[in-house]
Specification:
2 copies of one chain form a homodimer.
Chain A: H1 6-21, E1 26-27, E2 31-32, E3 42-49, E4 52-60, H2 62-73, H3 82-102, E5 109-110, E6 114-117, E7 122-124, E8 132-138, E9 141-151
Antiparallel strand pairs in A: 1-8, 2-8, 3-4, 3-5, 3-6, 4-9, 8-9
Chain lengths: ~160, ~160
Amino acid sequence: MKVEYINPFIASTVCVFDTMLGCQLTRKDPYLKGGTQPEHEISGIIGLSGKAKGTVVLSLSREAALKAAEAMLGEPTDDVDADVIDAVGELTNMIAGGAKAYLEHLEMNLSIPNVITGKGHTVEFPRQATPICIPFDCPWGLITVEFGLVEQPAAAML
Amino acid sequence: MKVEYINPFIASTVCVFDTMLGCQLTRKDPYLKGGTQPEHEISGIIGLSGKAKGTVVLSLSREAALKAAEAMLGEPTDDVDADVIDAVGELTNMIAGGAKAYLEHLEMNLSIPNVITGKGHTVEFPRQATPICIPFDCPWGLITVEFGLVEQPAAAML
């Protein structure tokens, strides 16, 4: 996967958290994800397809998800209910949408966001799409954005 | 969501399990999924985008995933390793690909399949995409295919 794909996802995540949630993220070093690693408790996931196809995963602790939903909806909540699920899904959608805009030449469209909950769940990528994991620090703890993109051969686009 | 979207997913799932795994599925009654319900232990998930966008989720018990991988790869395995993950992802990809072919007028493309593992995990859909859940019985136990599709307004396609 091309290194120049990383910055659009960093820029989009930082921008979405700042403008939508008033939350300043500090980026830590991206790394290639290997093997099965547990995620946080809540993951937003969305697919991309076009001249490249792939997936974006936003992983949050339960606490970070509640804080993000509170910042987005203007009301505190202490339960991962449908509002929190929708808030995490919408954040994932916006992060992927921002990166897609930076990567206009790949002409990608988004699927719908899904949100996975469950302690100790993992989200595995296909072997040909080893994901890059970007950790961010914020007042709510560590959050991560993972993405894997596979460029499509021109023939597959016909 | 239109009722005529259901049959393509049923037909595709039955065909993929029959031709790829030699496994005959018996369809049970589809239902609208409501609220948070635990899935099986392993879920393949893939996004669709085009004139409609959405997600397909294939949920399997651990045992069914191992049996499916064995049928696909020709070798027994007793651990959910990278081969089993790839087999479940590829099955999900083929089910979505078959349904996409039946729903040609929606001009959808697939993202890449991801596989979620973890006891008691749930996959939530956005509120505007209430998924239809199709259970199937087979010698390996119950498997389910869920899909949610949202048609895009013509303006969004420009």
